[in-house]
Design a protein that fits this description.
Elements (H helix, E strand, L loop, with lengths): L3 H4 L3 E3 L1 H9 L6 E5 L3 H6 L6 E2 L17 E5 L4 H12 L5 E4 L28 H23 L5 H28 L6 H6 L12 H8 L6 H25 L4 H28 L1
Parallel strand pairs: 1-5, 2-3, 2-4, 4-5
């Protein structure tokens, strides 16, 4: 038995320090590695995490980029420490074990399998195709927020839904600006919008699926912001995983990574909005 892989010391960070590390670095600089089982991952995971269960890790090392920092976590920290030591013993120079595991994670998380939302991104899209998909997802979320205004009684909640819908317009503005930068013969915005269709919202779920999963109180501004933050966390998760899979078009991968970074910013903005309301 190669005992070195179990004796190699690795750095550990608690959940809060790990969150700061993630916030301060681009997704292209690190890999979030979840070494739990698929069922655990589906019930909740760090947005953008790659799932490789610990029993599979020795045979799937080639899927990890040794040039990136590997941030490894499990449920409470035991399996991830073994995985981190294994990676260090296999020549991965920058490995961090998140002590306390997912149980200690207090920030927003994502739910669903690794394939959730990936039907929207096959990995073969061009950068322009990717922008159209992202724009359509923002549009779906905006229409959802607008539709809720007429369904609720609380005036503060109505105002909040309108504010959230306006925020999605700003997100679309950024995506269309990316499109103008990349397209050789960009279409006017009305024609660009006419080419997009999607029943899903950000994060790859429909409005009914979000409602069923999170079951918010539609009259509560706090619940509404919490739902919006959950949707943005799902979007960050989906775009990050899509970027990991976009190996056929480098420009598309860059676009997905950029959108993922913007989703992280959107999530932070909603957090500030929550602070004002709560």
């Amino acid at each position: 038995m190669r005992w070195k892989q179990f004796l190699t010391p690795v750095k550990s960070l608690d959940a809060e320090a790990t969150r700061k590390l993630i916030d301060e670095n681009s997704e292209e600089q690190f890999t979030l590695l979840d070494v739990r089982q698929p069922g655990e991952y589906e019930h909740g995971h760090l947005p953008g995490a790659k799932l490789i269960p610990l029993p599979d890790l020795p045979d799937r090392l080639a899927e990890l980029d040794p040039e990136k920092t590997q941030i490894v976590y499990c449920a409470v920290g035991g399996r991830s420490r073994v995985a981190a030591q294994m990676l260090a013993g296999k020549g991965f120079d920058r490995v961090i074990n998140m002590s306390g595991g997912f149980k200690a994670w207090k920030d927003k998380s994502a739910i669903g399998s690794e394939t959730q939302g990936m039907s929207l991104f096959t990995g073969s899209e061009t950068a322009l195709d990717t922008l159209k998909i992202a724009y359509s997802l923002e549009q779906g979320l905006r229409e959802f927020y607008l539709a809720m205004i007429d369904k609720i009684e609380n005036e503060a909640a109505k105002k909040l839904f309108k504010q959230l819908a306006d925020i999605e317009v700003k997100h679309q503005d950024h995506i269309y600006a990316h499109y103008l930068e990349l397209a050789d013969n960009p279409a006017p915005r009305d024609k660009f919008e006419a080419e997009i269709t999607s029943d899903a919202m950000e994060g790859g779920l429909t409005s009914d699926e979000y409602a069923q999963r999170f079951n918010p109180d539609w009259e509560s501004p706090v619940d509404i912001i919490s739902l919006a933050m959950s949707i943005e966390a799902q979007a960050l998760d989906m775009y990050t995983r899509a970027a990991q899979n976009a190996d056929k078009d480098e420009d598309s991968r860059k676009v997905l990574s950029q959108i993922a970074r913007e989703e992280k910013t959107h999530l932070a903005e909603l957090g500030k909005l929550m602070d004002k309301i709560a």
